[in-house]
Design brief:
By secondary structure, the chain is α+β, with helices and mostly antiparallel strands. Helices cover 40% and strands 29% of the residues. The protein has 6 helices and 5 strands; from the N terminus they run H-H-E-H-H-E-E-H-E-E-H. The protein has helices at residues 3-9, 12-15, 45-56, 59-81, 105-120, 160-166, and strands spanning 30-43, 85-90, 93-99, 131-147, 153-158. A 5-stranded antiparallel beta sheet has the order 2-3-1-4-5, sandwiched between helices. The protein is globular. Mean pLDDT is 81; it is low at 1-8.
Length: 174
């Protein structure tokens, strides 16, 4: 996915649902949702980093960054293919949501789980050392646009559905 295509995918569907920021900037746009949250992050970093450093020296870090970028691009495609919205990509992790717009939480869970299954089947090209682990949580979550400096806003999410996606042993998020 190109950078231009990426800009339209990340948080666009979520931020469009948030109220406009107030003039003071002290009260970030915020809204409650029901739906599913998926969090995926890379595993196998340490072993691959050491192997690439031994094999390629200083260029090993570039190869690692390139492999992670390709892996995350394919993960974004899996989310979008299942109708999800990518909220954020931080380092080697991705957060995505499926908002219940009347289709029900079961449908949100099903689509999020299908994306999670596709994501966990991925591996970095040329190596099985980096794989993505994914968790899905269903129920309530909240979103806000934070920042505002030079009109740059980031979308963040929190709540029981995110907690459940991060911890498979967490209590169900109503």
């Amino acid at each position: 996915m190109s950078d231009a295509g990426l800009a339209g995918v990340i948080a666009g569907g979520l931020t469009a649902r948030l109220p406009a920021p107030d003039a003071s900037g002290l009260h970030p746009p915020h809204r409650r949702f029901r739906g599913a949250v998926m969090v995926a992050d890379a595993s196998g970093f340490t072993a691959l980093t050491a192997a690439l450093e031994r094999e390629h020296g200083a260029r090993g870090a570039d190869r690692l960054a390139s492999a992670i970028n390709r892996l995350l691009a394919r993960a974004i495609d899996a989310v979008v293919d299942q109708g999800g919205t990518v909220v954020e990509i931080v380092g080697d992790a991705i957060q995505a949501v499926w908002i219940d717009d009347g289709q029900g939480l079961a449908a949100c869970r099903s689509r999020a789980q299908a994306a999670a299954d596709a994501v966990t089947a991925l591996s970095a090209e040329g190596t099985a050392a980096i794989r993505l682990r994914a968790g899905v949580g269903v129920g309530r979550f909240e979103a806000a646009a934070v920042g505002g400096f030079q009109d740059r806003w980031d979308t963040v999410i929190w709540g029981p559905a995110l907690t459940a996606a991060l911890d498979p042993n967490a209590a169900p998020a109503d």
